[in-house]
Recover the amino acids of this structure.
């Protein structure tokens, strides 16, 4: 699995490099951030009166300081730009945006969108690109009329002029970035869905949900969902919050089920439950009530995300100090998302200026986290497999001990009968009893007697044909069962016993009784055993150290 992930990462990097290589290289490019001033909109405001004059515009304060409402935002005077230039700015919560362009000949033209039609100008990276209307004269100044601004990040977010070649380059780079992300996340999702179906581990379901929500968040936050479906832009922003909250909650639930219980013991587990509830509650409140009290809802949402980050610290600390190596791999996996999410929270609180890559850092960090977590999962599965194999070995050993005689290693009576009864073909049964075994124990002691039993069992193994059943069915009584074709087996057993080197060169003999028959059921077994046992006693009455067949007996 690790090799497959590495190959996909290499492929993503190759796609990005190729996109950079094929991007057009123009000699003249326009890529200029615009400085802006703003003022509150009032009744009777006209664009032609607001161009080129002070008109109450504030150029000192940050746009974030202004309360929600309607505003005019005016750019600095534009340099000479090439034809086809577009104005790019970040996506924000707004009901309507109209861009007025003033040209050198005094004419003013407009282009704009509402929240419902914003998808027509939405590009990958969740940025709007408004083309400047064509005119005979060059553009000299821009003026935005922003209506219904929630103003949680600004009024016009980092506006910049882009030439067509740079716009195309950005599109190629972002396409490669998002395609690589979705491809890698999709591969992780498919792989872990297959593992979940096969292994049925409790942590797989929240992990798959986390990756699935993350893919949905990427599609929505990138603007792709709006481009494809024509989704209302403000509704898309609501969906962003809901999907991100679902991703965080799935990640916490995955951590709860993935780590060993001692990692989340004590106060940490209920705190994680409370935090998940707070994240879901604040995100649902944002979705339902925005833009009413938008700043309060946004601040509450940011604080619950911050609480999630703070809660991650003790979880990672405990995971790092856990004895399991997979827990350390998981802790490393969450280090980068923790840093990038912290940067996003600081940006949301206004402590760090807005930046596109900080805004999209969640995607980069979470996909790296998903890869590292996949490695941790693989490590955990390896450990579970080893534990399962060890349990199976112990179970097999327990069964073996339950089915075998601990002294000789032969089958015991129960396992012998289980394997013997039910055979429809004729088999030869040989009962073997050591002669005068009580005298052997009195001579050698019980330890010496046990050694005689082990040597005796080894002689039976060497004498019996392959596939024969050999059992110790009593103290010094043994049984051997083989197909009826093994008619010479009883004589072979007797010869092996006579030739066996017993402890202290003691002469040990045995009496054997044999019979042939089928063992379809327990009644047939009893009948066959009785006849072989009669033959055994006939051998003992005849002087021991000999073989008797039931017919002769």
């Amino acid at each position: 699995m690790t090799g497959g992930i590495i190959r996909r990462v290499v492929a993503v990097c190759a796609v990005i490099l190729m996109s950079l290589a094929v991007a057009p290289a123009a000699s003249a490019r326009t890529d200029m951030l615009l400085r802006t001033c703003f003022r509150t909109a009032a009744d009777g405001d006209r664009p032609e009166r607001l161009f080129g004059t002070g008109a109450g515009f504030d150029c000192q304060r940050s746009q974030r300081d202004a309360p929600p409402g309607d505003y005019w935002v005016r750019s600095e005077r534009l340099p000479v730009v090439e034809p086809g230039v577009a104005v790019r700015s970040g996506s924000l919560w707004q009901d309507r945006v109209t861009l007025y362009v003033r040209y050198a000949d005094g004419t003013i033209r407009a282009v704009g969108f509402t929240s419902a039609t914003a998808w027509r100008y939405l590009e990958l990276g969740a940025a709007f690109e408004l083309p400047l209307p064509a005119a005979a004269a060059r553009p000299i100044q821009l003026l935005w009329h922003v209506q219904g601004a929630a103003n949680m990040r600004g009024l016009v977010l980092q506006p910049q002029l882009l030439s067509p070649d740079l716009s195309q380059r950005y599109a190629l780079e972002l396409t490669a970035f998002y395609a690589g992300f979705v491809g890698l996340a999709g591969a992780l999702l498919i792989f872990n869905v297959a593992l979940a179906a096969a292994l049925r581990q409790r942590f797989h379901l929240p992990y798959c949900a986390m990756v699935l929500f993350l893919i949905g968040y990427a599609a929505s936050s990138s603007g792709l969902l709006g481009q494809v479906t024509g989704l209302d832009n403000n509704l898309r922003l609501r969906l962003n919050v809901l999907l991100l909250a679902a991703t965080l909650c799935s990640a916490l639930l995955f951590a709860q089920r993935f780590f060993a219980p001692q990692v989340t013991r004590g106060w940490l587990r209920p705190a994680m439950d409370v935090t998940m509830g707070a994240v879901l509650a604040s995100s649902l409140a944002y979705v339902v009530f925005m833009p009413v009290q938008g700043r309060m809802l946004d601040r509450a949402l940011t604080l619950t995300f911050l609480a999630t980050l703070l809660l991650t610290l003790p979880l990672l600390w405990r995971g790092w100090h856990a004895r399991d190596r997979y827990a350390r791999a998981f802790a490393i996996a969450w280090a980068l998302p923790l840093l990038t999410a912290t940067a996003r929270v600081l940006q949301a609180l206004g402590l760090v200026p807005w930046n596109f890559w900080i805004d999209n850092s969640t995607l980069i960090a979470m996909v790296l986290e998903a890869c590292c977590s996949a490695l941790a999962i693989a490590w955990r599965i390896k450990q579970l497999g080893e534990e399962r194999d060890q349990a199976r070995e112990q179970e097999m050993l327990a069964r073996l001990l339950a089915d075998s005689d601990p002294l000789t290693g032969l089958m015991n009576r129960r396992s012998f009968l289980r394997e013997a009864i039910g055979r429809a073909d004729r088999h030869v049964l040989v009962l073997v009893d050591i002669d005068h075994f009580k005298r052997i124990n009195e001579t050698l002691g019980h330890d010496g007697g046990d050694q005689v039993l082990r040597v005796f069992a080894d002689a039976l193994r060497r004498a019996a044909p392959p596939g024969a059943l050999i059992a110790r069915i009593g103290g010094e009584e043994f049984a051997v069962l083989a197909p009826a074709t093994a008619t010479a087996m009883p004589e072979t057993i007797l010869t092996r016993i006579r030739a066996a080197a017993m402890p202290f060169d003691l002469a040990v003999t045995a009496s054997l009784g044999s019979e042939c028959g089928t063992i379809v059921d327990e009644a047939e077994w009893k009948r066959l055993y009785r006849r072989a046992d009669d033959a055994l006693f006939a051998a003992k009455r005849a002087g021991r150290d000999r073989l008797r067949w039931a017919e002769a007996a």
Observations:
- Confidence is low (pLDDT under 50) at residues 1-28.
- The domain at 173-388 is CATH 1.20.1070 (Rhopdopsin 7-helix transmembrane proteins).
